[in-house]
Amino acid sequence: MAFFGLIGRGRRLQTRKAQAWCDTITRVARQPGFYGAQAVPDSLMGRLELMTLHAALLLIRLRAEPDQALVTQLFVDRLFKSFDEGLREAGVGDLTVPKSMRRIAGRFYGQLKAIEAALALGEVDALAKVLQTQLGADLPYTFAQPLAQYALTALEQLSARPIEQVHELACWPPPPLQRI
Q1: Pick the residue with more confidence: 91 or 78?
Q2: Comparison of pLDDT for 75 and 43, the residue scoring more
C-alpha cells in the first residue's frame, strides 16, 4: 500500500510542476510589453499566439530533458485545458468549443514545428518570418524582429537554467517593448 502512496505523491508533484509551468507561461505571455499599437494586438487571438510561442519555447526546453516526459505531457494537457477554459470564458458556445479546440491543437502543433525549425537555424530573420506568418496582419512587421530576438534570448536563458527553475519569471527576458 505504501508503494502506491509514493506513486500518487510523485504524480501529484509532477502535476503541480506542470501547473506551475502553465501559470508561468500565462503570466509571461500576458505582460503588457508584448501588446500595443505597434506590437501584438491585445485580443483573444493575440493572447493565444503569445501563449503558443511561450509554450513552444518551454516545450523545446523540456524536450532536452528526457526524464521529464511525463511532466511535459501533463504540462501540454494543462495548457490545452487552459485554452478550453479561455474559450468558454470568452463566450464560445459549448457545442463550438470542441471544434475550436481541434483547430487550436492543429494550429499549435504546426506552429510548434515551424518555431522549432526556425529556432534550430538560430537566425532572427527566419524566426521573424515564422512569427509574422503566425500572426499575419495582426503583427506589425516592425515588431516581428524584436519578438523573434526575444524568443531566441528566452530559449538561451531557459536552456542555461536547471529545469527546476524554469517556472520562475526571472528565467524569462523582459518583453520587447520594455527594452525599447
Answers
A1: 78
A2: 75
Q: What is the pLDDT of residues 113-131, one digit of tens each?
A: 999 999 888 889 999 999 8
pLDDT digits (tens, 9 = 90+) for 3-47: 444 455 677 889 999 999 999 999 999 999 999 888 888 888 888
Q: Quick one: residue 136, left, alpha or beta (phi over 0 = left, psi -120 to 50 = alpha)?
A: left
Q: How far from chain centre, in Å, is Cα 178?
A: 19
CB atoms within 10 A of CB 56: 22
Number of H-type helices and E-type strands within the chain:
7, 0
**Which triple of cell numbers denotes residue 47?**
493572447
Give every CB contact of residue 84 below 8 A, 6+ residues apart in sequence.
97, 101
CA angle 144, 72, 127 (to 5 degrees): 15
pLDDT at 44: 83
**Dist CA 178 CA 180 (whole Å):** 6
Amino acid identity at 50: L
Helix (H, G, I), strand (E, B) or coil at 178: helix
Q: Where are the domains of the chain?
A: 2-179
CA distance 65 to 63: 5
